[in-house]
């Protein structure tokens, strides 16, 4: 684990966080329940869990986009009350203005914060160089490949030098080879400024390759099931670390924890168990039919060894 994880005040702290939503039919849906999680300054934390378990909701709470129904969300020891400029957010879909050049897109953040145009453009050129896009400043986003657009998104986010970086399946739309290249680039860029990171992914290989720790969430209502320290040395090469014996051992341990949650989630979406635990108001006894043992196996299965395939994807 990273040395910084011993710092006294966590960069991010969720204590007993519960998030409920009103449903259109008037019921109450509990998306998160009693979730406890901390991320130290400079720590890279990956979060995995089955679809619908509350990963994106967790990021919304940390960012201040949503307020929790109960519990505490703290950034550097202070309660989150609104959107915080120290937080950078990178989503699955691109956030670039399609009518603006790459350079203007990357300069937009500093410009918004009141940085003079000349300085913002100079900083944007610098970040485009760091992400390997020198020479593409005048392109429009649609004139770039998917991998290049992800590099633009990294530059757009990191130019603001966030102390806290929230990433919600940022690379899931990329092909496997491009994804590994961009993952390596992310690690290199993260080393430059060392924000605390919460990286949500369905790809367990990606989580282990990138992170200092991997948090496994339960099927909804989501709560922390297990936390695994990833004691693989840095700097890491994402393409190669998957063949390290320690990586394979970690993969098997974490997948064993995740597997039951994935199967339960699969059973729910297959209509066997409609999530009786989560629906507080609208559940019926018939909804509670399935047990983990009854659940059909998901499309995913425990591999003998991690491969570049998408075996670990738990959609
Ligand atoms: N505004 C909302 N109103 C009602 N229910 C919501 C709302 N936002 C999220 N939910 C529900 O809360 C649960 C958690 O949603 P969330 O998007 O956090 O899941 P997730 O773990 O990110 O899923 P995925 O892996 O598919 O992205 C889901 O069942 C979702 O339907
Ligand atoms: Mg999500």
Radius of gyration, rounded?
A: 20 Å
What fold name stands as the CATH topology of the largest domain? Rossmann fold
Strand fraction: 15-25%
**What's the level 1 CATH class of the largest domain?**
Alpha Beta
Uncertain parts: 1-5, 280-315
How many strands, which pairing sense, and closed or not: the largest β-sheet? Answer: 6 strands, mixed
* Tally of separate domains: 2
In CATH terms, the superfamily of the largest domain is: P-loop containing nucleotide triphosphate hydrolases
As a percent range, the share of helical residues equals 25-40%
List of distinct ligands in this structure: adenosine-5'-triphosphate, magnesium ion
Q: Provide a count of the helices.
A: 8
What overall form do the CA principal axes indicate?
Answer: globular
* Strand order in the sheet with the most strands: 6-7-8-3-9-10
Topology:
Elements: E1 12-22, E2 28-39, E3 44-48, H1 55-63, E4 70-75, E5 78-79, E6 87-90, H2 102-112, H3 117-130, H4 146-158, E7 164-168, H5 176-193, E8 196-200, H6 204-210, E9 213-217, E10 224-229, H7 238-241, H8 245-269
Parallel strand pairs: 3-8, 3-9, 6-7, 7-8
Antiparallel strand pairs: 1-2, 1-4, 4-5, 9-10
Residues 55-56, 168 line the site of magnesium ion.
